[in-house]
Design brief:
Blueprint lengths: L3 E6 L6 H13 L2 E7 L10 H11 L6 E6 L3 H7 L4 E6 L2 H17 L4 E6 L9 H9 L10 H10 L2
Parallel strand pairs: 1-2, 1-4, 2-3, 4-5
Length: about 160
């Protein structure tokens, strides 16, 4: 049986921290679905289609990665693609409490799907899409924070 994992997020935009988690997850699982979940409480800079295109571009060297979007419960998406795992990235201890609540709820909804936490590399522990957007908005240097394709897309958005 193939091991299939789902790596959810808003990815607005995808950062080097996200890419670190995706790359490492792709080494462990046969298939990895990077899934953009539409979070109605957020006001995204990039459309879902733009985010899909950016992630597809920066993961083109990872043949077992598929990019998709979904509205609804993550567990329902995981069930639909027959995933047996969810991958979540952790930057710091402060992420853990929120992630533990989400994982506990997902386990109530389907205890057959395991959640795996991957600690981001130390160099990305401070990094978030929000910080990247804020720096890019004021023409700061983000070349170390995002893939070059994402940097170009951000520059274009803030022109």
């Amino acid at each position: 049986m193939a091991s299939i994992a789902v790596c959810p997020g808003s990815f607005d935009p995808v950062t080097n921290g996200h890419l670190d988690i995706i790359t490492r997850g792709a080494k462990v699982f046969d298939e990895l679905y990077v899934v953009i979940l539409n979070n109605s409480s957020k006001n995204p800079l990039f459309s879902v289609d733009e985010r899909i295109a950016l992630i597809e571009t920066v993961t083109k060297n990872l043949p077992n990665v598929k990019v998709d979007s979904f509205q609804g419960l993550l567990v329902e998406y995981a069930e639909a693609v027959k995933a047996n795992a969810i991958i979540r990235g952790l930057r710091a201890v402060s992420d853990f409490e929120y992630e533990m609540q989400i994982t506990s709820m997902n386990r109530v909804l389907n205890d057959e799907i395991e959640t795996f936490f991957i600690m981001t590399k130390n160099q990305y522990s401070f990094l978030s899409s929000s910080i990247v957007k804020e720096v890019a908005k004021y023409n700061g240097n983000i070349s170390e924070l995002v893939p070059s394709e994402v940097e170009k897309a951000l520059i274009e958005k803030y022109r």
